[in-house]
Amino acid sequence: MPKNKDFNITFLILRLSILYIFISYLRKDKKKSTPFFKILAKSFYTSFIFSFIFAGYVFFCLLVHLPGWKLIPESDDYLLADLHSHTFRSHDGIISAFNNLKWHYNYGYDIVAITEHNNTIGSEEANILAEQNSSMPLVLKGIELKESEETSEEIEKNLGQSEEGLDETEETSEETEEAFLIGIGDCLNLVKSVKMVRKLNLSQTTKFIDYVKNKDNAKCSTKGAIFTVANKLDIEDVQRLTVEGVDGFEIVNFGHPDMSNEVRREILKEESLHGLKLIASSDWHGWSGYARTWTAISIPKVRKLNRNKWKGLVMSALQKGSENAVIPITAGVIGKPSTLRIVFAPFFEVFRYA
Prior knowledge:
The chain folds into two domains: 9-62, no CATH class; 69-349, Metal-dependent hydrolases (TIM Barrel). The protein is 39% helix and 16% strand. The protein has helices spanning 9-27, 36-63, 97-106, 121-132, 152-159, 194-199, 205-212, 235-244, 261-274, 310-317, 339-343, 345-353; strands at residues 78-85, 111-117, 138-146, 180-184, 225-228, 248-253, 277-281, 293-298, 326-330.
């Protein structure tokens, strides 16, 4: 599957410089000719100033959390969850566990799954904070992993049987582009690093599902849940992962909104045939501050119950085939945005909110 090209500021400056030179040449006074090198120098200077201003604008958009939507349930039968978010314990996250929970509280979430890449350190930290402050959202322990096509034998061969063979810097065999999975549940307590991911062979989908859903782990008292991230999926992935036993799919991911209509239709078909759960996630890493996705979990009179009972009830509701309704919610239509929509997102979102 082709990868998106990274935005390259160097090429932007170069293109602006060439454009400026061309315009300056067309507008120059023939009687009072300006030396070409001065036009060139001025063009680079102007392009640099423009790029500096644009970079400041981009940083403002990414780091300043402007006001946005907050969802308020009118019934005691629903809890609002975000089942996919990160802290700086993920390589691409920039937010602390405390500020992650604060952000989710401000936008109406009752429950948050902290799903770091390849570790559970962030969810452990957030869980401690939530237990110390009951006004914060309840935390579900989670992790996000990328599938691997390596077999158990290949991993053992690459890593060896000793702890020394589990060095995090050691390279494994080449992997193909596969789906990303979210595991949620208390069984993930031991998975604190890439080292443990490799040792437990969790990059293999079936191993990961069995581990999280507590099929072979007597140390866990509850069954976890597995969801597929709405990123780089195709129809074959949806069909395969359904057979392998995931509990559901992200039907909307605010961080990756460009799911094709064909894949979305396939997810809806599998959901109706197999009782899968569909969720809408923020995939929030701390960049920008908008909330436009929630997952409502239906549990009769749950808000009147002691908060300590929520976690077990929610985990049961997230299981494939459970009778509890799990409803993905979005503020407005979410799809692949245009380039202009991305660049001016803060103004569009504040205008929509107002």
